[in-house]
Design brief:
single chain, alpha+beta, Creatine Kinase, Chain A, domain 2, 8-stranded antiparallel beta sheet, two-stranded antiparallel sheet
Length: 348
Amino acid sequence: MEKWYNDINMDEHIIISCRCRLARNIKKYPFSIMLKDEGAAAVIKEAAHSIKSERSPLSPYFEYIDVNNLTALEKQALVNKHIISPEFIKTNNKKGLLVKDDESCSIMLNEEDHIRIQTIFSGDNMEKAWDMADKIDNLIEESIEFAFDKDYGYLTSCPTNTGTGLRASYMVHIPLLEKTGQFRNIVQAIGKFGMTARGIYGEGTESMGSIYQISNQVTLGKTEQEIIKSLQGVTHQIIEQENKLREKMIQEKNYIVEDMIYRAYGILSNCRKISGKEAIKLLSDVRLGYMTGILKTRKPKHNIYSIIMNIQPGLLQFNYGKEISDDERDVLRARYIRDKFDYTDYSQ
């Protein structure tokens, strides 16, 4: 089954992916922070059964994973692929995970809340992401009673998630807004609309390669459709500003932009040792080349975002099969990137 992050057309657009995440708790159990091992095991059993039972139409598409039995590298690889959150692996309480075969959906059991449903698709497919999250939510609710209040909505461990429990987000690549420093002003402006910008792995993480997650902060007092509509409006305004900057830069300083892009391409396709920080910065520059059309046929074997994901320390070592030193990772990273940039002409 093809994974969502392998879409070769992802490099043509500012929006890399869209995500919906729903937070839910089972009414009869204490919130996760107060949950003992016996209760945590019961949450996992009931939630997993709602998806994996013989009567569930989704059962054949989902795999159950006992997170506590995974190695540190396996857990980090799941974080790097956005299947689980960084917070999910910070504690040793009993945890379970359900993952769809194409990795477009994952359900974390006993994270901050009992159940965290996450759907993620490449490009601007928010309606598709919401439709899948909503259907899975309804399926689970057929056999499980959620903690719900008629005035406040779904009850969650963190008050900011109470209400719909929905956090929707777009992952966007905005190199020119970042390089010119204009994105700092945008972050302040979107806060007035109940939106925020986070790093590539969500709250508390840094941006990498000019990639940000734009998401809603408020879930109470709005419907899911209103949240998504507001997010789409804010995101499309950011895209418009990035596009205006791109047009201006190409018109006024095209030689500078071209030089930056081709230098990045040259280093990546020939490097023998490279740090993650440098590689991601250069990959961002090359991706700008594809979005602007400056680089037309020299496309790597995988899209740029997939390469960024796979050169993260967790996935790099997981795919290699063992933990290695920083220097060894830099050499392995360069070898991986060179292979992906082995010239491929898709125009034929």
